Known about the structure:
The chain is an alpha+beta fold. It folds into 2 domains: about 1-50, no CATH class; about 70-150, Arc Repressor Mutant, subunit A, CATH 1.10.10.10. Helix content is about 35%, strand content about 15%. It has a 3-stranded antiparallel β-sheet, covered by helices on one side. A two-stranded parallel ribbon has the order 4-5. A hairpin with a 2-residue loop joins β2 (about 15-20) and β3 (about 20-25). α3 (about 90-95) crosses α4 (about 105-110). The radius of gyration is 15 Å and the shape is globular. It starts with a strand and ends with a helix.
Amino acid sequence: MTSRWMDSPIGGLRIRASADLITAIDFDAEAVGRPVSDPLLDRAQRQLTEYFDGDRTTFDLPLARDGSEFQLKVWSALNTIAYGQTATYGQIARQLGYDTTVSRAVGSANGSNPIPIVVPCHRVIGSNGTLTGYAGGIDRKRTLLDLETAGLF
C-alpha cells in the first residue's frame, strides 16, 4: 500500500492506493514522511487539485470496490449525482428499487464510503434539504457543495 498527503481547502487529505487502485481518501491527515513517487497517486492528487480549483467536475481514477453488495450499490448510485447537484437518501433508495424506509441504510452505506469526494457522498442531503451527517463533518460537506455550486457559474 502507498499513500500521499495533500493539502486542500478542506484540510489535509491522505490518498491511499494498493494494487493500482485508489482504496481510500482520509480526512484530517497530517503530512508525515517524504512524498512517495507513484503515478496513480500523482494522477489522483492532480485530479483532486483540479476539482478544488473548479477545473474538474468528474474523476477518472481506478477505484477499489471493497464493501457489501448493498454498499457497492449505494456507492455506484452516488456517482450518478451530477456535479453541483444533490439527492436525498430517500431518492437514492428509490433509485435502487427500494422503499424510502431504506433511507437510513442508504445513509449508513453513504457514511461508510472510503473514497469521499471522488465518490461524491457529500452530495446526499436530508429529505428536508438539510446537510445531515457527513463523515468529514458538516463544515466540509458545506464547503464541497459550495465549491461545486460556485463552479457552475
